[in-house]
Amino acid sequence: MKKSVHDLAAAVRSVDLASTPKRGLAVLCMSVVAACSTPAAPPPPQAEASEPSAPPAQPTQAPQPVAAPTESLLQAFERMRSGVARESVFFDFDQFGVKPDQVSAIADNAKLASTYSNDYLTLQGNCDERGSREYNLALGQRRADAVKGRLVLLGIPDERIETLSFGKEKPRARCNDEACWAENRRADFVHEWE
């Protein structure tokens, strides 16, 4: 015989919990379970037989997407590489320390290198036209080495990174003012699939 929630609640109120703690606890637990249970859903109403029934609707099928050709690892690498192709790390005059606003370029290139183990990086250090050839070659090398250090800290293996310096031999901008010089004080990323 099933009892309703109201019957169980009345039974709980009538039990003296102090005199019968185990029985009271059992009744309390049963009332909680009964209160939490949900009644079964009523059956859906049935249509009257006298109504003419419409033909059943045909389910519509969503258009199937055209399967795109799968992208090879090399193609995916090339696509991702094109996204970071013009990124460089820029430096202050006569400095080789990486500025905080340049860290995102390093992180973007590190993501590419960590995603593809066949990616080998060459870091090209560059300088503006001021200073001697020898001084700028050394400064460009220190700039490339500074970026390499950051990449290694981000988990790129040292043996996959090569550094070289062009000094002032590979300017990006050719003019004799601070805007051009700032554009030329940089380290460039060159990614190669090997």
Describe this structure in words.
By secondary structure, the protein is an alpha+beta fold. Helix content is 40%, strand content 13%. It is built from six helices and four strands, in the order αααβαβαβαβ. The chain has helices at 5-14, 21-36, 73-83, 103-115, 133-153, 178-184; strands at 88-90, 119-126, 161-167, 186-193. The protein has a four-stranded mixed sheet. Helix 5 (133-153) links the parallel strand 2 (119-126) and strand 3. The longest helix is centred in the last third of the chain and has 21 residues, at 133-153. It starts with a helix and ends with a strand. The model has no long low-confidence stretch (mean pLDDT 80).
In short:
It is built from six helices and four strands, in the order αααβαβαβαβ. With 194 residues, the chain is an alpha+beta fold. Strands 1-4-2-3 form a four-stranded mixed beta sheet.
Secondary structure layout:
Blueprint: H1 5-14, H2 21-36, H3 73-83, E1 88-90, H4 103-115, E2 119-126, H5 133-153, E3 161-167, H6 178-184, E4 186-193
Helix pairs in contact: 1-2
> Which range best describes the helical content: under 10%, 10-25%, 25-40%, 40-55%, 55-70% or over 70%?
40-55%
Look at the helices and sheets and give the structural class: alpha+beta
Order of helices and strands: HHHEHEHEHE
Query: For the record, what is the CATH homologous superfamily label of the largest domain?
Result: OmpA-like domain
Tell me the Rg in angstroms. Answer: 37 Å
Give the neighbour order of strands across the main sheet: 1-4-2-3
